[in-house]
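Much of our argument rests on the idea that a fold can be written as discrete symbols. This step matters because it turns folding into a mapping between discrete strings. The record that follows shows the chain in one-letter code together with its fold in token form.
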Amino acid sequence: MKRREFLCSAVSITLSNPISALGKPASGAPYKSITLAAVGDCMITRPFDRQSPGLQPLLGVLRDADLTFGNFEMTLPDPEMYPASTGVCGDLNNSAEGPMPEELRWAGFKIMGLPNNHMLDYGVDGMFATARKIGATGIAHAGTGRNLAEARAPAFYDSPGGRGALIACASSYRPGSQAADGNGEIPGRPGLNPLHIDTKYHVSASQLSTLQAIKQQLFPDTRQGPLQAPTGAGVSFLDNQFVAEGQPDVVTTSDPRDLAGIVASIRRARRNADLVMVSIHSHEAHGEREIPATFLPEFAHACIDAGAHAFMGHGPHVLRGIEIYKGKPIFYSLGNFIFEAESMRQVPQGMYDSCQIAGADPSDFFDRAMQGFHEEVYWQSVIAQAEFVDGDLSELRLIPIDLQRDLPRAERGMPIRANAQVGGVILDRLARLSEPFGTKIIREDGIGVIRPQARS
């Protein structure tokens, strides 16, 4: 079988043939090659600029891949649907109008994750409307449903190169967004596929004693829960668990029940697909925003161990490092791909009220809300372009993209191919973030390249 070309000619890069050094399978059967293009958060409110010269090379990459993945971080409510209450200034109800799903399909997207902290911004009805409209374009989607079993089930997409499967989940979501199963008498609850996490705050013994004393003074009524000694299990205070163990730290772990359920979905998908992907929407960090929380590498490894071929993170709106684990790529965050929320026609009145903004001009709201996103790291990312041969990663290419931060509000947020200077900055940052995972990124004509060692 002839190796399929998967890089757009407009990028003006000729791929070397990494397959030739691997040798023929012992059976003599032809290779099965499948390509994946993966991006991060897609917050789309405007059509693509079809005349943009910087967009054209990206379209080739997205369209030519067998499987093209992104996280859809908008809702598509019908006009009669109501926004959910957020109660926090800046915690926006994301919504888009018009043919945005058709725009994504036109650009080349084939499969998308839906679970994130905005998926129920317009309630359960808005979640169902979003899934219906995305699916109507032919884009497969995963991570939401009428109950937990449906939200956790894999979605499948049949491409010329083979069948892909996606299991999508979120560790960052609003309370009440998570799906639940029924019990025979009570029906299940619609929502998203959750990965609950357990958080423990490691402090010194003296700090723990102080917390215990504060808790006893504020809540002397023991009916609210017995106080615990500052050893062993620690102190539960204001719904947080503090323990005196090691150095000060924030340690997170995956809920074992959720982990088992997601692993079961991966194994199911592996028996029915050529390429299995897992995605997670995760804001949680370990100190710095670019460092994944402690639970995330363990969860990603468990997914690969269960049979996933690729793991894609998104949510913090910045790039995080890349790990190659057992020959499979783990993207701890792919950052933003489309960042256009501030082009929404209008925002709910509750946003103006919570931010104490007079009037109803959305620009006044976004002047406030976007203050935390002025840094270039939120506006620079990559498209990850991977080729798998017989299930093994053959080559990974990282194409730098620029979301045009300095354009006016009505124009910025749409990706273009980064120029040489900006691309170098992006790849330098990604190389630094990937180094702790033992990943080496080399440069070829302005693109980052990772080639796992050849199979024996």
